Recover the amino acids of this structure.
């Protein structure tokens, strides 16, 4: 049974003496383009489009099933691993599960887990301000993918030193991935998923490679949608004063991460969603399975009465499905 806890600071961050000076809206700024990132992301997206064509016209069913399976594994490596376990410490994991999640996260290859965690802790502490790496007030494209194509805002760099990462740098599993990032992640994310279909069921290199690109780009954009769409459209049942929203369709696509208004109000809840939505929440089911095995423990949740009280006090009067819950 997951223990209930009261709201608390999830990381002992250093006090930022300038925190109150962060502007609630993005100030005009000329972006400095990172051309290598533009070329790389343009290539993988074009290759993914061709991969989609090959999936329809040429790929074997084994290859399609393999790509779908690895896409789910990569997604859970991000949602259950870098997000819920390491960024928010919403539960604890024994070493075997940490290794599994690190490998699954490498399959997603969204840089190193350490970099991802730092950016995400910044996102929560300075959400939708200039110190947020993917500040949604700069527009849909910027918060979705544009932030990866330009140099980071000076506020992101300046305030990053106030984010406590001591628990992450002390983790030998994450240090291993960081140390061997390029050879390890390339092997897990690109090389092996290309070679396995070729070796085991005779898929061509052309199809195998472009199906990997399709899976990779899908995994990237599923996470990007949480940064962009879930800060733009949807209802706000728990706090109508913040940008993050609830989006049930996105939660299905993102393995349970679409209940974003809830998550920003209660970031330490390992479900990232309120009770009643777990049938959309594949990541929660994954964690629950390993809790049953005994490899996941100290699962943190929020009491139902605390959830309801917060919704009544600061919510917009809707529930997660958009229906009004307050009488006129």
């Amino acid at each position: 049974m997951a223990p209930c806890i009261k709201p608390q600071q999830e990381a002992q961050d250093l006090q930022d003496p300038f925190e109150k000076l962060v502007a609630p809206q993005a100030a005009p700024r000329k972006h400095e383009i990172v051309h290598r990132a533009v070329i790389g992301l343009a290539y993988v997206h074009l290759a993914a489009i061709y991969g989609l064509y090959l999936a329809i016209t040429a790929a074997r069913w084994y290859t399609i099933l393999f790509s779908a399976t690895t896409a789910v594994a990569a997604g859970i490596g991000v949602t259950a691993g870098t997000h819920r376990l390491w960024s928010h410490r919403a539960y604890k994991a024994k070493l075997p599960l940490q290794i599994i999640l690190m490998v699954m996260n490498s399959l997603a290859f969204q840089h190193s887990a350490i970099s991802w965690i730092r950016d995400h802790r910044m996102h929560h502490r300075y959400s939708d301000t200039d110190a947020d790496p993917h500040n949604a007030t700069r527009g849909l494209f910027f918060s979705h993918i544009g932030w990866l194509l330009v140099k980071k805002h000076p506020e992101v760099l300046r305030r990053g030193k106030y984010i406590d990462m001591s628990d992450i740098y002390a983790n030998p599993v994450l240090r291993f991935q960081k140390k061997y990032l390029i050879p390890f992640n390339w092997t897990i994310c690109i090389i092996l998923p290309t070679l396995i279909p070729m070796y085991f069921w005779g898929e061509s290199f052309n199809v195998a490679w472009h199906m990997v690109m399709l899976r990779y780009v899908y995994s990237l954009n599923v996470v990007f949608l949480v940064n962009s769409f879930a800060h733009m459209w949807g209802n706000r049942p728990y706090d109508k004063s913040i940008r993050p929203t609830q989006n049930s369709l996105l939660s299905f696509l993102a393995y349970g991460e679409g209940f974003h208004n809830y998550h920003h109000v209660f970031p330490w809840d390992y479900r990232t969603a309120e009770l009643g939505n777990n049938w959309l929440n594949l990541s929660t089911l994954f964690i629950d399975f390993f809790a049953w095995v005994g490899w996941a423990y100290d699962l943190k949740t929020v009491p139902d009465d605390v959830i309801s009280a917060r919704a009544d006090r600061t919510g917009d009067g809707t529930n997660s499905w958009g229906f009004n819950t307050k009488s006129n």
Q: What stands out?
A: Residues 1-11 have pLDDT under 50 and may be disordered. The radius of gyration is 20 Å. The beta strands are 92-93, 296-297.
